[in-house]
Amino acid sequence: MGISSPALWTEFFERYYREEINKLAYRIKSGGDGRSIYVNFVRDLSIFHEGKLGEELIEKPDEVLIHAQRGLASATNIYGVSLEGCKPRFYSLPTTRKVLIRNLRSEHIGKFMAIEGIVRKVTEVRPRIVEAAFACLNCGSIMMVPQEENQLKQPFECSKCSSKKMIFLPENSISVDSQRVKIQEYPENLRGGEQPQTIDVILESELAGYVNPGDRVIVNGIIRAKPRGLGQRKMTHMDLYIEGNSVEILQQEYEEFEITEKDKELIIQLAASDNIYEKIVKSIAPSIYGHEDVKLAIALQLFGGVPKKLPDGTEIRGDIHILLVGDPGVAKSQLLRYVHRIAPRSVYTTGKGTTTAGLTATAVRDEVDGRWTLEAGALVLADKGIALVDEIDKMRKEDTSALHEALEQQTISVAKAGINAILRARCALLGAANPKYGRFERFTPIPEQIEMSPTLLSRFDLIFVMKDEPDEEKDKRLVDHILYTHQLGEIAERAKNTASEYDEEYIKQRSGKIVPEIDPDLLRKYIAYARKTVYPVLTDGAKEKIKEFYLSLRARAKENSPVPITARQLESIIRLAEASARVRLSDRVEREDVERVIEIMMKSLREIAVDPETGEMDIDLAYSGTSKTQRDRIIVMKKIIDDLEKDYEKGVPEEVILEEAEKEGIDRTKAKEILSKLKLHGEVYTPKHGHYKLVSKL
Fold it and tell me: What is the pLDDT of residue 81?
């Protein structure tokens, strides 16, 4: 037999936790919540009696926890209050007792362990009966029956009169708040192709309702096993679950990164180099040729702007959202995959195979007991990191509406089946989309070629169009690059798998072009360090430059001409400039940062917001697909139909409309296009073929 006994536990609590016991007693006396005392295992229990008591708790938690509870109940307090029923909860277990979900084995059953992971699903909090009260319908005596299983156990017969007629009394029964939580392994720790594993955790009394989907937690508790199957049909295979004793919510920052003094020196040294931006650009997907502006934008996205909370409670996001739209074969997905590898925290998904639940969050019915549960999706799991969504244009319509809120407010609201919850989704989004018709058409506005709503497009800070246009010089360099990388790959494989004429030195020399300038591990630490320690502030020079740029572009929008830029792009410039300062680990956003990001912003706007007909920049064209010139024409066309309607009872003939349009300077093909658009949007209808009438607004 071990050394554990209630008396020894009383000694432990009185020696190390006198103050906490008095606080607990005061809470009980004043009717407050929380009937638990939290014990730091490593700090206190591992030194008490040379750690033997702690060792016993881990090996035989069932009996030792009963001793600990009794020992706590016997501890004296200054208020003289009974501590009966108060629970000791243990946290901060030694690292040897922390185990990955995938490494749980039969030897761990019945042991006290710590499991770390991310909360995937939580059920609603509901009472669970611990002791059920039954009344005999014959003699009225009441019996209490302890409950262990999921199904309610009732007495076989009345202990007094042996009658078998019983009725359950919920209000006389003893119950405890209970909740089931699903914990999943961290997505960033998985190797390719691995299925993330999950485990259920039962949380009771004040632990219930404490965690939310997306939280990163350490659960300390007893590993239990139960046979699979329902009712009588039990199987020999068992499911593991954890009976939670305590939960530690980890700060969802970049603190998981171990940055040594040596790393810190290297990071500061790198940040001081003159060509740091070039180095970082060359470290992002070096095997992908070109696209330097896109790579620089992605680098800024990884560093991120500064999230702000204003005195009136308004929150302004610091995360930068980028959309890559491109012809097939321009390596969009490759870029996303690479970012997934170097981002300190990231979740990768595709729009096509993802439901709303998979992308954001939803309430789903639980398969075990039919309760409604909250389940977190990719954007919630990527909280404080980056979400990579490939084929974002292939998402279902209802999913895009969930994205709106996630991108701007950085929250996800769920209101379904009586669950109303708001989850945090403070992540940057890097999306990739393909043009609607397979490839880009040169003279059609970009938004018309992307299957995404204008309002969603306007949420992105930068949209890059990656076209695959023939260019002899560029193509030649691209071919050389691809051939070089493939040949290098072949040589490396040959050297690895067969006796080869190529030695390591030869391969090392040749791989210079493809090896990133900054080692991916160091870059990851660099990003984490910058995000954690650098909070830059705008200098007067930077403010002046932003103001100058914004006002000069707005000034172009004279009377009745297109609007080239809005306040939304202004905020994007500030965010990007903050990220640019973070790259240098600078506490000040300088004029040079603003100049750098204006260049990127203008490249993005020139691609998506220049009216092919007038050559003018028009922000509405970028985010709604309808340019100023087109809007003016639509107004003219509607006026023509309106004016002529009184002369044609069965609708104005198409030919007449086209003739009138020509007089107004709109050529026939453009006018036909506008007519079909108006019909598509339900603004005109055709009472008979080839005749048009306006839909009257009541």
Answer: 79
Q: Give the angle subtended at the CA of 426 by the CAs of 424 and 428, to the nearest 5°.
A: 145
Position 579 confidence tier, pLDDT thresholds 50, 70, 90? very high
* Residue 26 or residue 611, greater confidence: 26
Burial class (CB in 10 A: 0-12, 13-18, 19+), 56: buried
Length of the chain: 698
Identity of the residue numbered 263:
D
User: SS in 3 state form for 489-535?
Assistant: HHHHHHHHHCCCCCCHHHHHHHHHHCCCCCCHHHHHHHHHHHHHHCC
The answer on pLDDT for 7 being more than 70 is yes
Question: 284 and 299 in contact (C-beta within 8 Å)?
Answer: yes
Whole-prediction pTM: 0.66
Helix (H/G/I), strand (E/B), else coil: 236: coil
Largest CA distance in the chain: 105
Residue 133, H or E segment: strand 126-136
Sign of CA dihedral 106, 110, 113, 116: positive
pLDDT at residue 256 is higher than 60: no
Which residues, at least 6 apart from 458, have a Cβ–Cβ distance to it below 8 Å? 568, 623
Q: 93-97, 549-553, 652-656, 694-698: which range is least confident on average?
A: 694-698
What b/e string do you get for 473-507 counting C-beta neighbours within 10 Å, with b at 16 or more? eeeeeeeebeebbeebeebbeebeeeeeeeeeeeb
DSSP per-residue string spanning 31-85 = T-S--EEEEEIIIIITTGGGGHHHHHHHHSHHHHHHHHHHHHHHS--TT----TT
Other CB atoms closer than 10 Å to residue 233's CB: what's the count?
8
